[in-house]
UniProtKB/TrEMBL annotation:
Coiled-coil ranges (or none): none
Residues annotated as domain HTH gntR-type: 1-70
Protein name: GntR family transcriptional regulator
Annotated keywords: DNA-binding, Transcription, Transcription regulation
Organism the protein comes from: Streptomyces rhizosphaericus
One annotated GO molecular function: DNA binding
PROSITE patterns, alphabetized: HTH_GNTR (PS50949)
UniProt keyword Ubl conjugation present: no
Domain of life: Bacteria
InterPro entries for this protein: TF_FadR/GntR_C, Tscrpt_reg_HTH_GntR, WH_DNA-bd_sf
Length: 155
């Protein structure tokens, strides 16, 4: 186990036992390093990982809200139920943590924008095309970054 992993495990333990709570300011870096038995570099790496994980979780939440709103607006209960199933199955994927994350984010945003514009224009053909393109690209990324049976996503 690396020192960074040890620091991450130590922080998780502090959260689990209530020593750290959401929104609470962390103890001084020197104090945390001493308590966790790691260097400042290892602690800083964990803090970077946590920031990335938080950004990824926020991104997933916004994406989930966008797609839920689309399903609700469609009035199609079968589509909404299918979206719930797909969301649950895809919760283990980590495409926003991939090496090409910036490209994926941009393409996803552009896909959402195309959908919004097509719907605002009340253009069913353009909406269907935008939805098909967005879903096809997302499927390709999900296949590429599918979680391995016993570990992180491939890629």
């Amino acid at each position: 186990m690396t020192a960074t992993d040890e620091a991450a495990d130590g922080l998780r333990a502090m959260i689990a036992n209530g020593e750290l709570t959401p929104g609470q300011q962390l103890p001084a870096e020197s104090e945390l390093c001493a308590r966790l038995g790691v260097s400042r570099g290892s602690l800083r790496e964990v803090q970077k990982r946590l920031a990335v994980a938080e950004d990824e979780a926020e991104r997933h939440a916004l994406d989930r809200e966008f797609h839920s709103a689309l399903c609700e607006a469609s009035g199609n209960e079968a589509l909404a139920a299918l979206a719930d199933v797909l969301r649950a199955r895809g919760s283990h994927y980590s495409i926003y943590g991939a090496a090409e994350a910036d490209t994926i984010r941009l393409a996803g945003d552009l896909g959402h924008e195309a959908l919004i514009n097509a719907m605002a224009a009340r253009d069913p053909a353009a909406t269907a095309a935008a939805a098909t393109a967005h879903l096809s690209q997302t499927e390709a990324w999900l296949r590429r970054y599918a979680p391995l049976p016993d570990g992180p996503a491939a890629g």
